[in-house]
From TrEMBL:
Pfam families the record matches: Aldedh
PANTHER family (UniProt xref): ALDEHYDE DEHYDROGENASE, ALDEHYDE DEHYDROGENASE TYPE III, ISOFORM Q
GO molecular function: aldehyde dehydrogenase (NAD+) activity
Protein name, as recorded: Aldehyde dehydrogenase
Organism of derivation: Scylla paramamosain
Amino acid sequence: MSSSEDMKRAIQRAREAFQCGTTLSIDFRKRQLKALKRMYEENEAAFCSALAQDLKKPKQEAILLELNLLKDDITYILSRMDDWIKPEKIAPTIMTMFDQPLVYHDPYGVVLVLGAWNYPVQLALLPVSGAIAAGNCVIIKPSEVSPATAETIAKLLPKYLDKECYHVICGGIPETTELLKERFDYIFYTGSTAVGKIVRDAANKNLTPVTLELGGKSPVYIDDSVDMEVAVRRILWGKCINLGQTCIAPDYILCSKQLQDKFVEVARRVLEEWYGTNPKASPDLCRVINEKHVDRLSEYLKEGTVAVGGEVDREQLYIAPTILTDVSPKSKVMTDEIFGPILPIISVESAYEAISFINARDAPLTCYVFSTSSKQQQTFAQQVLSGSMCFNDCVVHFSSE
């Protein structure tokens, strides 16, 4: 835990370092980014061990969806950084026709990054790379819900990055509350909408700009043109990585009753192929983050017919990949963000009924459309307002640069 005085000192040191111009040097920023990348490369085992402790995250998931993403992001930033930073020439107007107007891209100052527990390395440190590249000092607050990872970040980061410019603050809600009382020049938060509103309200007191990366529901529509074997594998992969604790995981399925029966049949076989007859014993499945979330997810199992899965082991923080049918659109599993391995299916008779169903609710974070018809794809793209849209695949679009 970090005391209030420790936090204030860390923020003050970061502010003094920024005011001294330490981070304005492009060479300094590049050295810090290369050091951060080296931290990931040299401590892969430590990060994988921490993720296994917090989420029982398989090594391949930890590397593919956390560490490799962070390393690739830094590689990309370093390849583009010079172009991003240099002054940008803009077209003169009649008032400036004899001048040479330029836009300079200046850093904000001291940035607060509030990480999330579901991808606790990636979501705490991915924004840090961009903040460093832009010339900011950074205060990093990893999620207390993933304590092993938070401790690992706090232990390793000072060994690689400048100790005056970049600080890690550990702790829970009291520490986050204290941090939000301080003045920052930018805040980046990843997490729930409810906490996002608290962060926004705190930022408003100082008119601090914020980025809020929040959750939401991500529907999947399937029509009868698809290869169901391929569709099921892609949808289940998107649902089962991190045991469904991914903000853009498929949240529910919309399809005809006939396709529902076919989906369930194929899904049962695919899940057994991937995880065996006893998925709880599989080394390839994560665990629910804590008992509170096991209890929350267990309640959803009562809101439909369990067609596949349904096993719960609270002590082991385990819920089997589960498919629910006969679900009411008004049930909590259909109004809450599920954030777990439960996949409800709602029957619809057409794409237009699916679109009406989606649009009658809050705008989706992502919409997944499984159809080989370009006309059908275009209809969804034009008529569904969502944060993103992906055709015939799940989750992979997040890796786009």
